[in-house]
Amino acid sequence: MMSKNKNILYLSLTLFFVVIAAYANHFENEFHFDDFHTIVNNPHIRSLKNIPQFFTDPMMFSVSQNHYGLRPLVTTSVAIDYWLGGGQMLLVFFHLSTFIWFLALGVILYFVYRKLLINSFSEKWVAYISLFAVGWFMLHTANAETINYIISRSDVLSTFLIVASFAIYILYPERRKYFLYIIPAVIGVFAKETVLVLIILLFFYILLFERNLSVADLFKGRNFKVILNTVWILMPVFLAVAAVQFYTLSAISSIPGISNPAGYYWLTQTYVWLYYFGSFFLPVHLSADTDWSVIMSVADRRILIGLIFFIALMIAIFRTSRKTETKPIAFGLIWFAASLLPTSLAPFAEVMNDHRMFFAFVGLSLSVVTWIGLWLSKREKQIELSKSWQYGILVGAFLILGLNAFGVHQRNKVWATEESLWYDVTIKSPNNGRGLMNYGLSQMAKGNYVIAEDYFQKALVLLPSYNHIYTNLGIVMGAQNKIEEAEQNFNTAINLTPNDFSPYAYYARFLKEKGRYQEAVVMAEKALSLNKYSIMTLSILMSAYEQLQQWDKLQQTAQMTLNIVPNDAEALRYIEAARQRKPLAAAPAKDISAEALKAKTPEDLLNLSLTMYNLGEYEKCIEFAQAAINLKPDYADAYSNMSASYNQLKQWDKGAEAAKKALAIDPNHTYAKGNLNWALSQSL
Fold first, then answer.
1. Residue 244 and residue 56: Cα distance in Å, rounded?
2. Could you give the CA distance from residue 117 to residue 109 in angstroms, rounded to a whole number?
3. pLDDT of 342 strictly over 70
4. Are 155 and 75 in contact (CB under 8 A)?
5. Phi, psi (degrees; rounded to nearest 5) at 270
6. Is the pLDDT confidence value at 360 over 80?
7. Are 109 and 22 in contact, with CB atoms under 8 Å apart?
8. CB burial class (10 A; 0-12, 13-18, 19+) of residue 136?
9. pLDDT tens per residue, range 448-496
10. Gyration radius of the chain's alpha carbons
């Protein structure tokens, strides 16, 4: 017994380090997609004082009106990550937080699996089989889609808390009278709307494992009292979870993304379930944003295949629930199906998402490993006598875990940057207009405006009514100084979604950059009326009011900003400008000169050059950047600032030259690449 415990300990530690190694290259991966409106651009996560309000105000979850909701546990956790990063968006803290919860989930799963498998295998094998099931789940390639996507922490947190509640219930039956298992479940509701699945899991656990019934026995009249008693036992946890769920859902007017015809959506889900099931064994078609759509024909062969799979799944559940040793297979399949019900019954706009497999694979790992274990146990004597069998089992286990770990490492590389992620989407899901648009955004960020425009136009063919594409076309046209085309696209975006603040805000920014301050104010004020928490809109308004010397409005807007983000440096500067009734651009000359005299390091001079750039003093920016280079000849950031300023002055050759010098020092300098592309596109 002591030897076996040591073996399990050593294997557990080995698995722990293998999981860390598999995910070692993901801790600096960038924010993606919904991360921007829930984390990066969300001002509320910048103060821990907002935590109580996260539980009452759905507008604090996101800056996007289409994503308001109450997931306060998620919002609280990312606010803590931001605080741990010293008030900066340090990626490592956001990824580390998710990863710790993921590891904790793995620990609990070992004890849950062991409890469920105790009657299926001899004592000497249960621990090993349980650990292998945990390993398969923790290293599964598909789970990298969830772990890399920071806001999908909601899946990790809710799964952890569901499993924790389930574990307390099954591992400590003598303490059920204290209802401790309800606590994690209630907390889990504040992470994601999937916790009611726990009631289904507990129901079937009690009937299969404690009442020793099969699924077929549920339809026999003699078991009616047993079923009724089970329902009564679960009533406290059901009422507690349902009450909290009702509260979180009642805080929003509608569930976002509900747009597909229910009947066809449900039929399509049978094929989606088959895809998820197949991906457990061959996760080779993973995509961050698929181009799947609802199958709108009952005669489509995919519907037939999906229905056959669904029927086969039900038959497998019924048959494996009959015998004690195969009940874990049945229960794992029930877990797989039950976990997919919330996203299968509600007709979401997205037919499927790879991160939906995360919760489901907790059950499927149990089923598959149990089946493998039972198949091998029938050959136990043969295995004990044959080295070939023993080596074959070890090689098989190594290949399963090793290939999945390799897959995780590769998917981490795909998720590394916006560009790499969305390029992968354009390859895997070529008919996804949103994916094409997002890849275009990655190119626009690099200054590749022609390429960005091309991808936006391709996206428009697939999604002709998607307002965000028109907004982005407006931005990229403006960057290329195509004024008329830019305004046409901004206005189209506004006409498509007149109650969305974002096209107004970006149009306002465009107008401000063109010096049309009064028009910018009109658009920005409209945007602010639709979203009072938009920091970008407030920044545009402050800048425009300052240029128009509307001091009272400037002070009022700056104060609004400070109410959302206390001690915001920009707002504080504008309040001072309003108090002195003196534009920021006119005041700093003396102050900047004084600061320049105090500058002791290249970093000080670089900051001064950036300040000058933001003030539109491009010659001064170049002067301070050159001074920084004199102290630090290999200062890529300084050369990049010089390049940007030369470009603003339309001195394209000098801009390209400075950018090339920056890239010679740092070939991966993002801003220098963008500045070089900008200069080259204008000098052709």
1. 12
2. 12
3. yes
4. no
5. -65, -40
6. yes
7. no
8. buried
9. 889 999 999 999 999 999 999 999 999 999 988 899 999 999 999 999 9
10. 29
Q: Which of 294-303, 310-319, 576-585 has the lowest mean pLDDT?
A: 576-585
**What confidence tens digit (pLDDT) does each residue in 410-441 have?**
999 999 999 999 999 999 999 999 999 999 99
Structure-block tokens of residue 408: 């995780």
Q: Output b/e per residue, 402-430; b: 16+ Cβ within 10 A.
A: eebbebbbebbebbbbbbebbbbbbebbe
Return phi, psi of residue 353, to 5°.
-145, 135
CATH number at residue 596: 1.25.40.10
Q: How far is CA 652 from CA 229, 478, 681, in A?
A: 79, 18, 9
User: Residue 244 — left, alpha, or beta (φ > 0 → left; ψ -120 to 50 → alpha)?
Assistant: alpha
Query: Is the residue at 328 inside a domain?
Result: yes
Indicate the range of 63-77, 90-104, 322-336 predicted with least confidence. 63-77
Looking at 388, 411, 434, the residue that finishes a domain is 411
Both structure tokens of 332: 């794992």
Burial class (CB in 10 A: 0-12, 13-18, 19+), 17: exposed
Token pair 């900047």 in the structure block, residue = 592
User: How many structural domains comprise the chain?
Assistant: 3
Cβ atoms of 280 and 407 closer than 8 Å: no
Side chain identity at residue 51, one-letter code: I
Whether 624 and 643 have beta carbons less than 8 Å apart is answered as no
Helix (H) or strand (E) segment spanning residue 512 = helix 501-513
**Would you say 328 and 365 are in contact if contact means Cβ atoms under 8 Å apart?**
no
Domain range for 336: 2-411
Range 318-333 average pLDDT = 97
- Co-location of 519 and 644 in the same domain: no
pLDDT of 1: 56
Q: Are residues 504 and 362 in the same domain?
A: no
d(CA 38, CA 44): 9
Q: Are residues 674 and 532 in the same domain?
A: no
Instruction: Please give the Cα distance from 452 to 457 (Å, whole number).
Output: 9
Instruction: Report the pLDDT value the prediction gives residue 567, as an integer from 0 to 100.
Output: 80
SS3 letters for 57-75?
Answer: CHHHCCCCHHHCCCCHHHH
Total length of the chain: 684
CA distance 340 to 348: 13
Reading the block at residue 348, the tokens are 């979401």
Section 207-232 average pLDDT? 95
CA-wise closest residue to 85 among 156, 147, 27, 21: 27
For residue 248, what are its two tokens?
A: 């979180």
Q: Supply the pLDDT for residue 619.
A: 87
Rounded to whole angstroms, the Cα distance separating 287 from 279 reads 12
